[in-house]
Amino acid sequence: MYIGIDVGTSMVKAAAFDGTGRELAVAARPVGLALHGGVVEQDMEEVYAAVVAVLDEVTSGVPEAVELAGLTGQGDGVWLVDQEGRPVRAAASWMDGRAHELVDQWLADGTFETVFRRTGSAMFPGCPGPLLAWLDSREPKALDAAAAAVYCKDMVFQRLTGRSRAATDVSDASMPFLDPRTRAYDNRAVELLGLTHRRGLLAPVSDPLATAQTRGEGLPPGTRLANGPYDLPACALGAGVTAPGDGLLIVGTCLASLVATTDLDLTGEPAGLYISTDRPGHWLRAMPAMVGTAALDWVLSTTGVRHEEVDGLLAESPPGAHGVRVLPYFAPSGERAPFVEPRLRAELTGVSLESTRADLVRATCEGIGYAARHCLAAAGLTGSLAVCGGGTRSPAWMRLLADVLGRPLRVVEGEVGARGAVLAAAERYGVALDAEAWTRPTAVVEPDAGRAAYYAKGYEEHLARLAEARERARR
């Protein structure tokens, strides 16, 4: 039995697989987010307790011995821990917007672009650079008390194994301090953000992945565990996206577009990031838009629609949603891909007394699809496209997405991030697994030619509306 652990933003999951990649059991626990005034934080002890609980559940339900385990989780944010991996303060989430004024300042004075040209990372308010700089000016005692500023999965790895020193991997370290060419921290980037005196807080980068044996919480003592990569590259592994040009769209809380590449191009508009992988010279060009299913969740809760009604409502409203349009930029910290606009907000237009709930739902799904198309184009998609995440549970939305994107979708269902975490762990430990069998799609959704042509025009209109919205956001 192989165990994959995926510590998500709102849900912590553990999945057990057999040697062929078949899911044997899945356990999940929700975790909370504290939102107030643009600040978004998480209780690390609640997150860790959820990890232990799902591991206890999934291992007790399957009698086989655990061969090894792999760990992945949400990226970005700042998780300040002491020497034992215990929290110094609440974790600042990747969704946090408190540092937006710093990002605005760095955009204006050129720091933002300079850092991108060095690291391939376009900063946004919820990434470690701005958050650490904000905490350094507002909460310096918290940084003084910390042994390390890590990422979510790194905290969990240290606690599960009892290691005395924090560690991260090249994927998590990619935002925003890692030089993708040398796979080491760029001290000049640290200096540009005014954090040289906090350089010691950056967790050492383990390359290859850090490994250790567990100490007995959640997993049997002595279980082999590998730390990383974080959830976006783990999903790429779990979906079989490794060949240059192939892409992955994750329709989850975050709408993430990833394209595998061997071409490191730090020119063009600074946006998204290059995620270093466990293979030197191979990167994922990532355009992780801030809001995916969270945008639809907001519309559903506001209109009183249940998730199970979505497919039916999508059938009630035609393409174009009777003129209703949604720019789906709902995040309090604005947008980060395929452009950075901290003050951008969502817009709902074309609504009248004749508009229905079905129109609002369809317009939101179409808007998310247009945002995904924008991100995938910017990331350089030329090959096949896989799709995973919670949105895949809606067949009607998958058909709509295929039409909006104008290309077939390789749908990969199940716990894709956990699956990728296992594949990464197996590679690290030298355990041979059939990656093709583990990543086989569950379905292929083809676009309708007529609807795809309609949405191609709609996409151009979306880009025009977006350009106007960005201008308003800058005033």
Automatic annotation (TrEMBL):
Keywords of this entry: Kinase, Transferase
Residue span, Carbohydrate kinase FGGY C-terminal domain: 271-426
Superkingdom field: Bacteria
InterPro entries (alphabetical): ATPase_NBD, Carb_kinase_FGGY, FGGY_C, FGGY_Carb_Kinase, FGGY_N
Domain Carbohydrate kinase FGGY N-terminal, first and last residues per copy: 1-205
GO molecular function, one term: kinase activity
Gene3D superfamilies tied to this protein: 3.30.420.40
Tagged with keyword Transferase: yes
GO biological process: carbohydrate metabolic process
Pfam families for the chain: FGGY_C, FGGY_N
Family affiliation: Belongs to the FGGY kinase family.
Official protein name in the record: Carbohydrate kinase
